Amino acid sequence: MFGRRKTQTRALQPLPVCPHDLNPDEVRVTHHGLLSAARRSPAHRQAALDAVAWTPRNVLQLAVALSQQKAEALKRAGVAFAYYGQAEPTDPAARVAHMLVCEFIRGDTKTALVMARSLAEPRDLTRPDAPPQIGPAVVANLVDQVTGG
Question: N or C: which end of the chain has fewer CB within 10 A?
Fold first, then answer.
């Protein structure tokens, strides 16, 4: 009614470009590496997460890739709407991860991308290479959701 989504989308500034931003191929490798490590053991999972360069662009790309993967897996299993109907978690990172997956289940990619973009915002605008505040925790939660960890 009031054009809220258009206003939100236009208000977002581009994420800063950082020297450690991953290209699309590196994002795919990192994505699969995180999942592989998480399936091996909690120690491997943590080591893989620690090795990620948590730039805003990397957080955005990994959060989107993992939440899309989780949503597709839920749809294939026929339980997407059961997940969608679950109570939202109380942990902030788990709650954001849940909301992202729900937006992809609903097919509302625009809203999901705005949400992912906002969680990738650098915590210190004077240091754009500083890791986003909640983004890495959301990515870790999504890794756990995808791998069943």
Answer: N
